[in-house]
Amino acid sequence: MKAIWGILLLLLPGALVAADHMEVRGQRMYVDKNKGSLVIEEKVEAQHKAKGIKLWAELLEILRDTTSDEVVYARAYGKVKVTRNQEYAFFEEGIFEKHLDLATLTGHLIIGDQEVRIEGHEARYDLRTNIGKVTPLPGERVAFSMVHSNPEHPEERHLVTGTAGEVLVYEKLNKMVLQGGVVAHDSYDDSNFKAERIVAFLDAKRELEEMTAVGSFEMTQPGRWSIADRAVLEYGPQIVTLLSHARVRQTEEGEVTGDRIEMHMDASKGFLKGKRQTPLRLEIPVK
Predict the structure, then answer these.
(1) Mapping DSSP to helix (H, G, I), strand (E, B) and coil, where does residue 20 land?
(2) Positive or negative CA dihedral for 215, 220, 226, 232?
(3) Structural fold of domain 1-115
(4) In Å, what is the CA distance from 157 to each residue of 147, 160, 219?
(5) Do the beta carbons of residue 55 and residue 43 sit within 8 Å?
(6) pTM confidence score
(7) Rounded-to-integer distance, Cα 14 and Cα 24, Å
């Protein structure tokens, strides 16, 4: 998956590790061949033309194994900015540690592209599993935004924005796990929803394809309120499926309950069906 998460891999163990293939500039440079170290200070600019990566920092430090010439440690520090095509990352410090196969970015971290954006305090990326984890400062939350298209009007792109206690990124599976009291807003229908945990699946374009919510799901839309233990939001067919203790109340249409309720994301289009063995109950307000 060549998504924004891949930039975490390219930042340090890709861009900095391949320093011999980069153009690097700075005010001062220190080289110690015996220790295998290279330090560049002040107004550091690095460019990897083959990979399309550019980096700006106040300090760039690289340490190689003197026997194998393999990079074992790399560090970028001081208002670090990295770009690759439409992808970008901002942070205060980035460290690559070979013995841990770990890249760590800290300090008001922002990573994103045209489809996805995550803002937190620290990102830890495991190079062995290709799994990243973004966490906030104590008492704060991770902010996120994703894009999905309107299938009836593909040229229209809508934002899903929100916050979570932490965000896990599974690069190989094209998915993110948002957990820790997730709250979100969808600009498509002006809906707000929340759950304890939401798994977001992205398509090949890195656009939002599906969300699976678990734990006290609740959604409010203009003219509709819904709750359930679990919910599946499918952005292709524009369908919401409520599972277990589902309950929906629509203005002027009453209330529906059941173990399974399927409905259009657009509240004006109403319901599709309920689980057959558990008939829906419809309560119509009497005026």
Answers:
(1) helix
(2) negative
(3) lipopolysaccharide transport protein A fold (2.60.450)
(4) 6, 10, 21
(5) no
(6) 0.84
(7) 15
- SS3 for 173? helix
Contacts of 188 (CB under 8 A, 6+ apart): 148, 150, 158, 265
Taking the C-alpha atoms of residue 179 and residue 195, their distance in angstroms, rounded to an integer, is: 8
Q: What is d(CA 229, CA 216) in angstroms, rounded to the nearest whole number?
A: 5
Strand (E) positions, the chain? 23-25, 28-32, 37-48, 53-64, 71-84, 87-97, 102-112, 116-126, 131-135, 142-150, 153-164, 166-170, 175-186, 191-202, 208-221, 224-234, 239-250, 254-264, 271-274, 281-283
Residue-level pLDDT, tens digit, the chain, 287 residues: 333 444 444 444 444 444 446 788 899 988 888 888 889 999 999 887 877 888 899 999 888 888 887 788 889 999 999 888 888 899 999 998 888 988 899 999 999 888 899 999 999 988 888 889 999 999 999 999 999 987 777 778 899 999 999 999 988 888 999 999 999 999 988 999 999 999 999 998 889 999 999 999 999 999 999 999 999 999 988 999 999 999 999 877 778 888 999 998 888 887 766 543 344 444 444 44
Residue 96 CA from chain centroid, whole number: 21
Per-domain boundaries in the chain: 1-115
